[in-house]
Design a protein that fits this description.
209 residues; alpha/beta; 6-stranded parallel beta sheet
Length: 209
């Protein structure tokens, strides 16, 4: 099968940057004590692909039991961006990612970024890492991944059953299920896959047919 389009999550799929963001979340909540830091990290890792702003709201409402005014939420987002951006810009590629992007471009199969990272930030990262030529469009939060995929498919007239979504989190898998795309799960340690047992998984990025 020649895919009509391939959708990529970004952190953990294109760049090996998940740990960078995990460390940033941990550092931001370390002053609240080890139990809070542990809970923050566990929630973050269990909910990959979700907007950081939704995570901050959860941390405050369910872990700290504190209100989170909009101005504080915005400051948290800015602080996180400052802490994580440098690490993301220097993160190595996931094995096979760059080769796959080059292959898609050579075969004129359109590729798209569908990320939980804020829109302007993920666009900046793609540009800074010299990846813009490989993607038709780059999308981030606050829109949900399934909304973005449906919008892209509608505008480009893609048959979603002939498209592939490559992701590393359960939210990516659910978006693929909701949209009817095929799915490849990227898992560093395949013995600890977060996906249902029948899901196709790999430690490196590749295109299957």
């Amino acid at each position: 099968m020649k895919w009509e389009a391939v959708f990529f999550d970004f952190d953990g799929v294109i760049l090996d940057s998940v740990d960078v963001k995990t460390q940033a979340f941990a550092a931001m909540f370390r002053s609240y004590g080890p139990d809070v830091e542990k809970a923050v990290v566990e929630y973050h890792l269990a909910h990959g692909g979700i907007s950081r702003f939704k995570k901050f709201k959860y941390f405050y409402e369910h872990i700290l039991n504190l209100p989170l005014p909009q101005d504080v939420l915005e400051k948290l987002g800015s602080k996180f961006n400052q802490m994580a951006l440098e690490g993301v810009l220097s993160a190595p590629f996931i094995e096979g990612a760059l080769e796959t992007l080059k292959m898609l471009k050579d075969n004129e199969i359109p590729a798209f970024v569908i990320s939980g990272t804020p829109q302007e930030e993920v666009q900046l990262i793609v540009e800074k890492r010299n990846l813009s030529a490989y993607f038709i469009e780059v999308h981030g939060s606050p829109r949900t991944k399934q909304d973005i995929i449906h919008d892209i498919a509608s505008r480009h007239d893609f048959d979603l059953s002939c498209c592939l979504f490559i992701g590393d989190a359960s939210t990516d898998f659910m978006a693929a299920q909701l949209c009817g795309t095929d799915f490849l799960g990227i898992v560093k340690n395949t013995k600890k896959s977060p996906f249902p047992e029948s899901t196709r998984i790999s430690e490196h990025v590749s295109i299957f047919s």
